[in-house]
Write a structure and sequence with these properties.
The protein is of the alpha/beta class and about 375 residues long. The chain has 2 domains: about 270 residues, Queuine tRNA-ribosyltransferase-like (TIM Barrel); about 100 residues, no CATH class. The protein is about 40% helix and about 20% strand. The strands form 5 sheets. Strands 4-15-14-13-12 form a 5-stranded parallel sheet. The chain binds one RNA strand of 82 nucleotides through helix 5, helix 11 and helix 13.
Length: about 375
RNA sequence: GGGGAUGUCGCAUAGUGGCAAUUGCAACAGACUGUAAAUCUGUCCUCUUCGGAGUUCGGUGGUUCGAGUCCACCUAUCCCCA
């Protein structure tokens, strides 16, 4: 994997660049649709490629390991072949599931024992086997196994958790160095910066990963309950330390405003379930703000979902989309997912254009108020 | 004409002496940030200063400290026999 910075904004830390992988080039800043279980829920690849213009999608180690299982993916020839997606893929390590499925796991220095959310069966993840699994899944970018502490963790817990994440990173890195890609193309390992909301921990974490010379870096453990302003501060703290010539990936974030503020602070990559999950639940991101399409006020609104929308689903009216949601028709969830992803992807493409044209900061000031009161 | 059954908050249901009344659906609103989510939560007779207050179970009257529940009559709907 290679990263090329094409240009930077003069007033902010925003930059435009390209990530070159074995499965193609990614223009940054980029938003990566989340396809946890080998599918961006409700969206065909054709729509992802042609309409949404996704350049890279995510998969999840935890989910794919449980189902269909690594053996199926190995026999398929890797995840790209299994799901018929020939562009870049990034897999998350399962570290986030260690957090979100906390009720059914046990953490030790060695790794994490957990119970499957599907059938309750017992499993064990370690830095080593998570790398092995991600070798078999075969994503272009793979993530280190980390612990993602809750947003309200106290300093002591956060510090101990960070130490664990750092130890795990060393082991991930070693395992990665000692293993080979299984399908003949290069894979790249990203470390994850943790440290909760504590600047000194974030700094320590960033310095630790920067010293290890990776090709790209991720910031995790944000947007897990802390105020957005705190998240922005943490991004600034960390990005001041991470090398400037590598992509920076802010994991699991966020709202459209989060994306723009992240870009302004030097983030290049984002992923988030919000456009798809919230979309399936009726939340539509439009150029005129966020709407809940199930609300009665759209019952007779025959205007397009988003007058400025760029995807083919934007031709549908709000009234029709509301009807689909109220009726529980699956097409509603599909339209919402496609529209929202197209909206997100267009937003970051616009940001890139603005960076290139030198008016990113001005654009940022004008667009943020339009994106929605609380987003 | 004779016999039987049944009327509960939009619909459907529970309730057989202490009840503003069960549950489901519908409706309305909210939540969702590296996806245990096509999920979850709340409201859903009226008013409310959220403490309560006021009116309810086809209608009228009665029994009772107390009635959606028991009794009488009326009324509506459905079923069976002529």
């Amino acid at each position: 994997m290679k990263f090329q910075k094409i240009c930077s904004d003069s007033r902010t830390q925003a930059r435009k660049g390209q990530i070159i992988t074995a499965h193609g080039t990614i223009d940054t800043p980029v938003f990566m649709p989340v396809g946890t279980a080998g599918t961006v829920k409700g969206v065909f690849h054709r729509e992802l490629e042609e309409d949404i213009q996704a350049q890279i999608i995510l998969g999840n180690t935890y989910h794919l390991y449980l189902r269909p299982g690594v053996e199926v993916i190995r026999r398929a020839g890797g995840l790209h072949r299994f799901v018929s997606w020939n562009k870049p893929i990034l897999t998350d390590s399962g570290g986030f599931q260690v957090f979100s499925l906390a009720a059914s796991r046990k953490l030790t220095a060695e790794g994490c024992t957990f119970r499957s959310h599907i059938d309750g069966s017992k499993h064990f993840f370690s830095p080593e086997n998570v790398i092995d699994i991600q070798r078999t899944i075969g994503a272009d970018i793979i993530m280190a196994f980390d612990e993602c502490p809750a947003g309200d963790s106290d300093y002591q817990y956060a510090a101990r958790s960070l130490t664990l994440t750092q130890q795990w990173l060393e082991r991930c890195s070693k395992q990665f160095a000692e293993t080979e890609p299984q399908y003949g193309y290069e894979q790249t390992l990203f470390p994850i910066v943790q440290g909760c909301v504590y600047p000194e921990l974030r700094r320590r974490a960033a310095e630790h990963v920067a010293a290890m010379n990776f090709d790209g870096y991720a910031i995790g453990g944000l947007s897990v309950g802390e105020p957005a302003e705190v998240m922005y501060e943490m991004i600034e703290t960390v990005n001041n330390i991470l090398p400037d010539n590598c992509p920076r990936y802010l994991m699991g974030v966020g709202t459209p405003v989060n994306l723009i503020e992240g870009i302004a602070r030097g983030i290049d990559m984002f992923d988030c379930v919000m456009p798809t999950r919230n979309g399936r639940n009726g939340m539509i991101f439009t150029s005129e703000g966020v709407i809940n399409i199930r609300n009665k006020k759209w019952e007779r609104d025959f205007e397009p979902i988003d007058p400025a929308g760029v995807s083919f689903v934007d031709r549908y009216s709000k009234a029709y989309l509301r009807h689909l949601f109220v009726s529980g028709e699956m097409l509603g969830a599909q339209i919402a997912s496609i529209h929202n992803l197209a909206f997100y992807l267009r937003l970051v493409r616009q940001a890139a254009t603005m960076i290139e044209n030198g008016n990113f900061d001005q654009w940022r000031q004008t667009i943020i108020p339009k994106l929605g009161n609380r987003l």
